[in-house]
Amino acid sequence: MADLTTKLAGITLKNPVMTASGTFGYGVEFADFVNLEDIGGIIVKGTTLNPREGNDYPRMVETASGMLNCVGLQNKGVDYFCKNIYPQTKDINTNMIVNVSGSCPEDYAECAARINELDNIPAIELNISCPNVRQGGMAFGVTTDGAASVVKAVREAYKKTLIVKLSPNVTSITDIALAVQDAGADAVSLINTLMGMVIDIEKRKPILSIGTGGMSGPAVKPVAVRCVYQVAKAVNVPIVGLGGIMNAHDAIEFLLAGASAIEIGTANFVDPAITVKVAQGISEWLDNHGCKSVSEIIGQAL
Amino acid sequence: MKKYIKDLTVAAVEYPHSRYVLIKLTDAEPLPEVAPGQFVEVKVEGSPATFLRRPISINYYDKATNQLWLLVAMVGEGTRTLGTLKAGDKLNLVFPLGNGFSPVQKAGEKVLLVGGGVGVAPLLQYGRYLKENGAHPVFLLGARTSADLLELDLFRAISDVYITTEDASEGEKGFVTQHSVLQTDKFDRISVCGPKPMMVSVARYAKQTATPCEVSLENMMACGLGACLCCVEKTVKGNVCVCKEGPVFDINDLTWNL
Question: What b-and-e string marks burial along B139-164, b requiring 16 or more CB atoms within 10 Å of the CB?
Answer without folding.
Answer: bbbbbeeeebbbbbebbeebbebbbb
